[in-house]
């Protein structure tokens, strides 16, 4: 079990790890439910007069979404209705002087922790505890609060290093997500189980299909992931065009896996038959995948595909969605994601919405949250938990307090 934040004496100096990793478009952070959820934890901590320094990451080195957290600080402040001071480094001089000035009732957010040496790669907690990052920051605080359930599958310094050497507590998001997801994992369902699998990360999607093969009977694929599977199936789809850098490097890295999985699981994989793009007049247009020769930046699955997936959902005992089927932030390309979510909301099935962005679609398109059995802001960690794999960031909080 975790030690909850209720056990903290008031007025402590706290290092709080949250996960506000968000979609970034044209250099702008897209607000997600993660901000609102973590704001609740911080709000509670503020009520107990703690001094709060927050660590978080954004993107992965080498990706377009690997950006500063300056804008995140502003968005978090809006959700909190309390200023969040941005500190432009993580464990250097600026950070240390900001820590010196930190008073009870203050909240500060350090720069993207993945820009700091030692945060990556994944290593044992003992090794991560020896990094400069942990050695520098840990002595400055009374306790660590782990709230980043959705990053708890990563054995990074800010997730496992600090709680290895500090007094550690679980934040509200950590507690709530853990409880909700564990309850899902332990259920069995009387009928077909479907997973709608979209989003942008092939690296995440590939193990899902393999590891959930005992649990999930059919996968409905979309988003960048769907396009990569279509490319593996020989279609002229899933290439980088118009300055995107989503596809080609993933193809280079995962081509063999994509082809192997397509071969091994073809019977249970549902692929898009048409895709949507923006035509020269700025309108949504669709093209059949079969025989496509011209490459467009595709932004959604086609309407017929969405209807076909909705039928699969309607005929399921349980449906999990992870990752959206298109760029739903743009209404013209929301159809796939919204049609599937509507089918999940209407169907008489156990339904789980996962992933920070996908959960955002529920809000953006005014679904009633009560029409879903669970909504989780975790993506990779949610799937990892579903497969029954332990989460390092959870284990270390349970064992070190
Ligand atoms: C997520 O968005 O799933 C978490 O923030 C983890 O991000 P990562 O997959 O880049 O480690």
Overview of this structure, please?
This protein has helices at 33-47, 70-80, 93-101, 125-129, 132-137, 157-165, 172-185, 202-211, 223-232, 248-265, 303-314, 335-346, 356-364, 380-386, 392-399; strands at 13-17, 24-25, 28-29, 51-55, 85-87, 107-110, 143-146, 168-170, 193-197, 218-221, 269-270, 274-278, 284-288, 300-301, 318-322, 350-354, 374-375. It is α/β, with parallel strands linked by helices and 401 residues long. The chain has two domains: 5-177 and 392-399, Rossmann fold; 187-367, Phosphoglycerate kinase, N-terminal domain (Rossmann fold). The strands form four sheets. The protein has a six-stranded parallel beta sheet with strand order 5-6-4-1-7-8, with helices on both faces. Helix 3 (93-101) links the parallel strand 5 (85-87) and strand 6 (107-110). The mean pLDDT is 94. Bound molecules: 3-phosphoglyceric acid.
């Amino acid at each position: 079990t975790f030690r909850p934040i209720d056990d903290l004496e008031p007025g402590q100096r706290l290092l709080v790890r949250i996960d506000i990793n968000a979609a970034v478009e044209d250099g702008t952070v897209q607000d997600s439910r993660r901000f609102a959820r973590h704001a609740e934890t911080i709000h509670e901590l503020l009520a107990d007069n703690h001094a709060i320094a927050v660590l978080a990451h954004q993107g992965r080195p080498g990706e377009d979404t690997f950006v500063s957290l300056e804008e995140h600080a502003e968005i978090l402040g809006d959700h909190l209705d309390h200023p969040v001071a941005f500190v432009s480094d993580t464990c250097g001089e600026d950070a240390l002087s900001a820590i010196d000035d930190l008073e009870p009732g203050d909240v500060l957010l350090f720069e993207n922790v993945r820009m700091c040496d030692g945060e990556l790669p994944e290593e044992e907690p003992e090794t991560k505890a020896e990094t400069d990052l942990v050695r520098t920051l840990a002595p400055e605080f009374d306790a660590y609060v782990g709230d980043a359930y959705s990053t708890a599958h990563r054995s990074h310094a800010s997730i496992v290093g600090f709680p290895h050497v500090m007094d550690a507590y679980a934040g509200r998001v950590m507690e709530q997500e853990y409880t909700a997801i564990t309850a899902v994992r332990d259920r069995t369902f009387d009928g077909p189980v479907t997973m709608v699998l979209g989003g942008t990360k092939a690296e995440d999607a590939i193990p899902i299909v393999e590891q959930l093969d005992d649990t999930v009977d059919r996968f409905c694929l979309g988003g960048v992931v769907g396009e990569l599977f279509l490319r593996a199936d020989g279609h002229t789809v899933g290439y980088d065009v118009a300055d995107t850098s989503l596809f080609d490097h993933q193809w280079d890295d995962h081509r063999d896996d994509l082809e192997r999985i397509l071969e091994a699981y073809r019977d249970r994989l549902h692929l898009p038959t048409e895709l949507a793009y923006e035509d020269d007049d700025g309108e949504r247009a669709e093209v059949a995948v079969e025989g496509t020769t011209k490459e467009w930046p595709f932004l959604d699955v086609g309407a017929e595909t969405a209807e076909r997936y909705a039928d699969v959902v309607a005929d399921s005992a349980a449906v999990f969605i992870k990752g959206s089927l298109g760029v739903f932030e743009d209404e013209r390309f929301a159809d796939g994601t919204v049609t599937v979510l509507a089918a999940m909301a209407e169907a008489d099935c156990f339904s789980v919405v996962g992933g920070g962005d996908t959960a955002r679609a529920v809000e953006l398109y005014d679904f009633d949250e009560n029409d879903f059995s669970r909504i989780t802001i975790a993506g990779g960690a949610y799937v990892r938990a579903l497969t029954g794999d332990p989460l390092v960031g959870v284990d270390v909080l349970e064992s070190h307090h």
